Amino acid sequence: MSDRGDKGMTLGECNLEMSKNSPFVRTVGMIDELQARVAGARILFEGVKNIDFEQIEKDLYQIMGSLYKGMKWEEGEGRIKKMESEVEFYGEKFGNPKKFFIPGENELETRINLCRTGCRLAEEELVFLKEEHEIGKLYFDGNILKYINKLSTYFYWAWRENYK
Question: What is the pLDDT of residue 49?
Answer without folding.
Answer: 57
